[in-house]
Amino acid sequence: MCGRFVSVNKKKIIEKSFNISTTKNFLEKSYNVAPGQKINAILNNNKELILDSLNWGYSFYSKNNNKDQTIINSRIETINSKFLFKDSFLKRKCIILANGYYEWQKTKNKKIPYFINIPVLESIFFAGIWRIENRNNIKTPVCCIITKEANKKITFIHHRMPIIFSFNEALLYLNDTSNEFSKNIKNTEIEDELDFYEVSTIVNNPLNNYKKCIEPMN
Fold first, then answer.
1. CA angle, corner 208, sides to 106 and 98, nearest 5?
2. Model-level pTM?
3. Which GO molecular function terms does the record list (predicted)?
């Protein structure tokens, strides 16, 4: 899964690279993005690329738990068959802007946090979906990150990972109205460049939001 990541992208570079039509909102910097927070994303809205900040997580009512819940990830393997996601996957794709993400390796006695990124890229692009939800009578754009089986380099940390696109793949995904490209995603062309290293447990607390979160452990 992907439950925490880093987003310190530069707005002007993103706008120029993707030829953004409209920028609504943009959050400048976060070294510890957590579920429920706003995150930067590029939306394809009727063939217009829009840069905006969206709430991370879809809301849904759980009959089993008899309450509203939030889900932050969707599996690529089942996204077309899940009622909550399939319409978004066909009609409302987005790219979530990041610079790397955190994952925790479970051991017998503890969880060890790792920072996973692609060092050759200043920005990385997660596959996502979005929709509008009515939250307290306010129309609120929300999003989910799409995940896949982890690259073999990082399976010892976790068995899932976000789908990470190269720039060209990100454009293909955003403009894929037929889903021919998207439904066949297994491995992306950039994921073999993944790197990882252990970081401090300060990242466990999302209130710790500063550059020290991504510093390697000695």
1. 75
2. 0.94
3. lyase activity; peptidase activity; single-stranded DNA binding
